[in-house]
Amino acid sequence: MTEKEKMLKGDWYVSLGDELFNDRQHANEVMFEYNSLHPKEIEKRMNLLRGLFGYTPEEFYIEQPFRCAYGYNIHWGEKSFANYNCTILDCGKVTIGKNVMIGPNVNIFTANHALSVEERMKDLEYADPVEICDGVWIGGGTTINPGVRIGRNSVIGSGSVVTKSIPDNVLAVGNPCRVIRTLDK
């Protein structure tokens, strides 16, 4: 099994090999072009993302600058929006639902590393998927950690660090992010 196959399965893998390096390099080149385009070239920007992401709908929007690790693990929902400086480390699958609003400076991480320094020195990592369900609003400056699911219609307050899954229809804030109250459906 290749390191890429291990990564996509969520197994331990080494990211330093040629195949994954080349995949990241390709994403970096697309991101460089995307982020260098004139702001008026919206359709060209969206077409670059359509060619990189695992799934894109007809209507979506991501502000410049934007960064991702591979791109092909990102599945973007209809009418979903990301503001400036969104970073998605998509070693694992990242699913963005429909009508999601992502504030500026949001980080979404799927990569995990060993806690043991000896294991980290072997360059091993693994990825846990992230799912952001339909109708979610993520406030600016939020970090979403690996393995998190944010439930439908929930709101994550600005500056939160989401370390655990959040249920549907709640307001959650803080570091670590925690549910404050239920929202009206």
TrEMBL record:
It holds the Pfam family Mac. Gene3D superfamilies: Hexapeptide repeat proteins (2.160.10.10). Its EC number is 2.3.1.-. GO terms for molecular function: galactoside O-acetyltransferase activity. PANTHER family: ACETYLTRANSFERASE YJL218W-RELATED (PTHR43017:SF1), GALACTOSIDE O-ACETYLTRANSFERASE (PTHR43017). Belongs to the transferase hexapeptide repeat family. This is Acetyltransferase. It comes from Clostridium sartagoforme AAU1.
